[in-house]
Design a protein that fits this description.
The complex is a heterotrimer of chains A (about 280), B (about 260) and C (about 325). By secondary structure, chain A is mainly α. Chain A contains eleven helices and two strands. Chain A is globular, with a radius of gyration of 18 Å. Classes of the chains: A mainly alpha (about 280), B alpha/beta (about 260), C mainly alpha (about 325).
Chain lengths: ~280, ~260, ~325
Amino acid sequence: MQYVVDGLLIGCVYGLAAMGMTLIWGVMDVINMAHGVLIALGSFGMYLLFTNLGINPYLGVVLAGAGGLLLGIGIYRVAIRRVLDTSHLSTLLATFAVNMILVGLGTAAFSTNPRAVDVNLGSLTIGSVTVQTTRLVAALASILIAGALYLFLNRTSPGKFIRAITNNRNAAEIVGIHSQRMLALSFGLGCMLATLAGGLIATFFPFSILSGDTYQVKSFIIVVLGGLGNPLGALVGGLILGLLEGIVPAFLPISWVPVIEFVLFILILIVKPTGLFGGKE
Amino acid sequence: MSILKVDGVTKSFGGLRALTNVSFDLPEGQILGLIGPNGAGKTTFFNVISGVYPPSEGRITFRDQDITGKKPYDLAHLGIARTHQIVRPLNELTVRENVMTGACFGRENKNLNQAGEIADQVMAFVGLAGHSERLAGSLNVAEKKRLELARALAARPYLLLLDEVLAGLNQSEIDIMIGAIRAVRSQGVAIILIEHVMRATMSLSDRLIVLNHGEQIAEGTPSEILNNQQVIEAYLGDPELAKRLMESEQGHGNS
Amino acid sequence: MKPRGSPGLWLILAGVLTVSLFPVVSDNAAMREVLFSVLLAITLASSLNIILGYTGYISFGHVVFFGLGGYVGLYLISAYGASLWVALPAAGAAGALLAFLLGKAILRLRGSFFALATIGVNEAMRALFNNLPRFGGSTGIALNFSVYEAYGGATRALWLAYGLMIALTLAILLISYRTKTSKFGLGLMAIREDEDAAEVLGVVTPTAKTWAYVLSAIMPAMAGVLYYFKNSSIEPNDAFQLSFSIELLVMVMLGGSGTVLGPVLGAAGYQLLRNSLLISPFFKNSQLVVSGVVLLLIILFIPVGAVGWLRRRFPRLRKTLI
């Protein structure tokens, strides 16, 4: 039971990270290969604010998120906009190039040594299950943010514009929606979700500039599981993956977890590429 | 012999009925015009015949062989070729290479050398000989349409499906195409023609089928169709125009 | 129609062979090592080009064939005392088999999905080999130095591996050229340009794609054997390094995807640039950033790569710049 709860909690945060990727993929058919490093930068952002300026870690997460939004918009304008509708290869490599640049800069600035943020909120015990409060808070924050994203996409004007351009960009432009602004905003939001997740992860796991890679690959799996462009699906996909990671070590050595994850990934791609909950093709 | 026999073909996409119970027979060497308002299901029909997707119901027989549900490449090998409404040139290949693919992978399965010779002939036939080494992506719309046609012809098919091959062309370009289509027919190729350019369609087609909302509302010779009340209401609109078209069709005769 | 092999092909082959012979002639082991890595890059990039440049399928995890080949080769050598002459074809066959099976499973996926699937496959293989005790688990396989005795000692073994690498490189260049100028290649390029239109034209796409993928897997697998034979050990994180796959993609794009010459120039250029940059302390730290910037600039401004750009700029040279 302990495993299940732990898995679900961390699954929420995985889901949050994956939501960023699925949003971008759904809106503009771009796979953000810089997703992982953005998660890592989110962790670092929160860490620096906490360690150097004494800012409350959770406030630091929010600020890191804001930074992610701005950085994302910048990345879109510089690297993505020009190649947006050319070919999958171009956008893949463009975001990958951004990844290389950010990892390189990050390594130069922070080296590859792991860092940790000491956030101790104690733990809660319910019945036979003991939960670290930081993990609980992170999970709750993830769900809150997911809810906020849902409200944003469905109840606000920019959100509706984003849904419009996802659906049919040409038609949206004809009715006067400024698609480039919306695309930039969407990319920014996707990056923001990544940095928020990174900040939250840093409250209970150590991290380095390279740790984002693992989360990026997990995000791929979750996005496909949950359905392309489906943020709710990403959250549920994250829960499933978290659950898997929690339960499998009870039966197999932990080094088998990646194998199972990837086999699952490939199977889903083959059997139901639209994901368990449906999404774009 | 009957080249194509379509029997009760119906196609649904989820809840949407795109085609309902379309049936007809197409003998060798005949030009069949397929007309109807936009969204009537004409291109869907072509997609079903060329194997892009299978029909939901019904059967399609090609030269006495049941081809229902076969893949596009199998149908190409049997001798069906088509052009697309929105042209699909192989952009980074030259015009010559484009036409060669038709000959290489179509019914006759030619090797590169033979395909090259056929390509040269076909390019001359459609008037693209001077553009042979240009990249297909650099052609203008009219040239790309001719390329579509050339690619389909290079396969020397038994059945040619032409999807709005005249759209966007000016009058002299249309006349050239009409001549080409007639020449193809005289070589024994059966042709189904989707067109909105009425004068050309009426003058080219031996028979017409009219689709509206996926249903076959009329079938017959051009003059029968022009006089058909249902067709006029659904598509041609103005009975006076219908009369004028008929007169002009009789006037142009068989040029 | 065309004369046997275009002048461009002979130029490339002659060029590669001539440069490769420098270290042999001058008995320079250091130069040999540099050129080995260049030839390795050329072989891998040219192989990737078959599925990526000719067929248009983005293989992000192509290194999986390299790693698998290395493992199969070293396993046969260490566990069964097999010689290189057995290990090489065995690895090639293993790579081909993996590509064949994978092809059946994932080639039906388009665009980004296929790319992701290849990443998944590579990561799965890495995780798998990490867990298999037969292949040494996370420690991998290490060759006993006595293995080299069969080849006349370690030095001669290294030279032998180098010679074989030259042979592999020349072979892949010939294969690449033959593919490009064959009917099979025309079908692949039709798939690349417009897969649906290619099907309507009669290209049997599932078969064509599978063969392209198989063809693109054989040389990397064999190259893997040579590389890890020289290295005398192999371990999972090194054998299935995703970043190496990405570097191969960069090489193909840099030089010009879909051409025979492109991967050669791209691989050679990238490797030499990388080596020379690594010497300077400043660039050593910023290597990743510099590579990233270069890649981004290419993607944004010259996506057709060096050879593509040259072909557009000098149409007369098209027959040579194949």
